[in-house]
């Protein structure tokens, strides 16, 4: 297994619309394993293939996992789709591809998820709360959408300005490019 590089805003590869997975090959299985390893390492509770540079409809999640409780219950979703959606809820979201920023996003409170597992078996889950938010957030990545796109223009521009400033500071603090700033705190989802 390997830790993969997570692409960060404003990388244009995060904006591509991903292709369906036609066949679960060994390569796809390896990618899913590496994505899980990367997600737990960051740490995060969800990761979509476009975030690691693969424009395919593959997502990994573990919404029960916390750093304190190392018990892992990973779910790998091949070609996931959300059907239906009821209620509204506001959740403070973050994203491994949008570092150092969280914001309140409004989503459906309950959704029904349809996907296939790596074994080809269908997965159907009716979920609510955090898991519903996580699925909606991760599936957005498959269509090139980031949670910042769901904010008001004002809030979104605040982040863009902050990011630009951060980049300048990074250049000042890490002139050789050999060091990376410390990892961000836990980001959900
Ligand atoms: Ni994300």
How does this structure look, described?
- There is one protein chain.
- This protein is an alpha+beta fold.
- The protein has one domain: Peptide Deformylase (Alpha-Beta Complex).
- It contains three helices and five strands.
- The chain has helices at residues 26-41, 129-142, 153-173, and strands at residues 46-48, 58-61, 75-95, 98-116, 122-128.
- Strands 1-2-3-4-5 form a five-stranded antiparallel sheet.
- Strand 4 and strand 5 (122-128) form a beta hairpin.
- Residues 172-185 have low confidence and may be disordered.
- Bound molecules: nickel (II) ion.
- Nickel (II) ion binds next to helix 2.
Supply Rg: 16 Å
Summarize the main sheet.
5 strands, antiparallel
Number of helices: 3
CATH level-1 class: Alpha Beta
Strand-residue proportion: 25-35%
Structural class: alpha+beta
Helix content: 25-40%
CATH-defined topology: Peptide Deformylase
At the fourth level of CATH, the homologous superfamily is Peptide deformylase
Mean pLDDT: 89
Q: What order do the strands of the largest sheet run in, or round the barrel if closed? A: 1-2-3-4-5
- The end-to-end span amounts to 22 Å
User: Which overall shape is indicated by the principal axes computed on the Cα atoms?
Assistant: globular
Ligands (ions, cofactors included): nickel (II) ion
H/E series: HEEEEEHH
Number of strands: 5
User: Which CATH architecture?
Assistant: Alpha-Beta Complex
């Amino acid at each position: 297994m390997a830790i993969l590089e997570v692409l960060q805003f404003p990388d244009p590869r995060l904006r591509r619309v991903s292709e369906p997975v036609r066949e679960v090959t060994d390569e796809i299985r390896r990618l899913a394993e590496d994505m899980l390893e990367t997600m737990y390492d960051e740490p995060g509770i969800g990761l979509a293939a476009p975030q690691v540079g693969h424009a395919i409809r593959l997502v990994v999640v573990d919404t029960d996992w916390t750093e304190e409780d190392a018990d892992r219950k990973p779910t790998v979703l091949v070609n996931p789709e959300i059907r239906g959606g009821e209620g509204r809820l506001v959740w403070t979201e973050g994203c491994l591809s949008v570092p150092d920023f969280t914001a309140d996003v409004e989503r459906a409170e309950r959704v029904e998820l349809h996907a296939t597992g790596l074994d080809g078996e269908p997965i159907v889950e009716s979920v609510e709360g955090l898991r519903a938010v996580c699925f909606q957030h991760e599936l957005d990545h498959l269509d090139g959408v980031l949670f910042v796109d769901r904010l008001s223009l004002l809030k979104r521009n605040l982040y863009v300005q902050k990011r630009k400033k951060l980049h300048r500071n990074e250049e000042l603090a890490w002139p050789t490019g050999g060091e990376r700033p410390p990892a961000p705190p836990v980001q959900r989802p």
